[in-house]
Amino acid sequence: MEAKTRIIFSVAAILSYGMIAHAQRQTSLYIDDGTGHFTVLQATAAGGGGTITFPPGSGTVTFGGGGGGCTPPTGSLMTFGDNGPHAGYTYWGLSQTYGTNAWTTGSTLPVAQQEMTASAVNGKIYVIGGDNGTRNYNQIYDASSNTWSTGAVLPVPQLFMTSSVVNGKIYVIGGALGSNNNNQIYDPATDTWTTGAVLPVGEDGMASAVVNGKIYVIGGALGNEKYNQIYDPTTDSWSTGAPLPISQHDFSAAAINGKIYVFGGINFTQNEVFIYDPSTDSWTSGASMPVGQDDMAVVPFIGKIYVIGGGNGSNNNTQIYNPASNSWSAGPALPIGEFIDASAVVNDNIYVMGGNNNQSANQVYTPGVTVYYFVAN
């Protein structure tokens, strides 16, 4: 997950009001998931002071010190009925909501595309391949400057492939053109491509996600469509996991908290949600999508998974899945309905790029997130 700059600095501002933990209290940072459950990002031991570590890649905030304390701000005593382990606690605390929960636009793609893939590395989004022109483009979007540049082209042109990031490298796997078992590896630091061990069963229209440094390539339009092929970049080798419960392709996947969530697809009712736990090599089912979809954008963001657009019916849905409560909510509609697009997260924003309706579009969503800082009695 990329750095949540606003959250870090704003929480630091909250801490500057003097919220130093009393020795007999525990200080915690929570995020409200909208269902009455508060996700604990990190709790410190009693004793005053400490460091809160934000989600991976987001840095830290240090607060307090010694055994000192302070009087909580007037009017900040609050009680909430959490459905987790902290139910019924009373807290001194502050809360603040960040993000506009709205869509804006960024600089459009230099080369209009659909059926491409995208990955984010160090604040830049790499939009690779696609069904337009030579299909080997490597378009690089710098979110901080809202500008585009180009990188070394994809050695084997492709579309309908998948990509994942491990240790700063982008692994572009499979695709619908020619040999569809390619494993093409891009290093943004050197702007060079290499190859890895080929995908055992060539695929297109599959999805991938990363857990513990391994890439799980799931499903696809070829064969029995249930494949779960696992790539270990460290050993440059493949293995297999428990197959997807149903045959599926043109769906999307995302990983959160060590599990992989698979959404929708072309087959069946298009609203299935399956959850894969690599630690047990097993699948379970999640709450069905309110609007069944295929070929949609799916990205994880601060404990939730955003399922955006898709090729079924209304393709401007923003459907938000909460793994903690196995429930769905709705976000603001995608301004230009899209599918077979590409998406990535940089800083506090979700970027949805290209697609079938406006292949040059760069639509930017800034979710609203409520952050709580509490000192618990």
Tell me what you see in this structure.
The relative contact order is 0.16. With 377 residues, the protein is mostly beta strands. It has a five-stranded antiparallel beta sheet with strand order 2-1-31-6-5. The chain has one helix and 31 strands. Helices cover 3% and strands 41% of the residues. The two termini are 32 Å apart. It has two domains: 5-100 and 370-376, no CATH class; 109-360, 6 Propeller (Neuraminidase), CATH 2.120.10. It is globular and about 45 Å long.
Percentage of helical residues? under 10%
Number of domains: 2
Q: Determine the CATH superfamily of the largest domain.
A: Kelch-type beta propeller
Task: Please indicate the percent range of residues in DSSP E strands (runs of 2 or more).
Answer: 35-45%
Number of strands: 31
Give the terminus-to-terminus CA distance: 32 Å
What's the overall geometry?
A: globular
Uncertain stretches of 5 or more adjacent residues: 1-94, 373-377
What is the CATH architecture term of the largest domain?
Answer: 6 Propeller
Structural class: mainly beta
Spatial arrangement of strands, main beta sheet: 2-1-31-6-5
User: What's the average pLDDT?
Assistant: 79
Radius of gyration: 22 Å
Which CATH class of the largest domain?
Answer: Mainly Beta
Number of helices: 1
**Tell me about the biggest sheet?**
5 strands, antiparallel
* CATH-defined topology of the largest domain: Neuraminidase
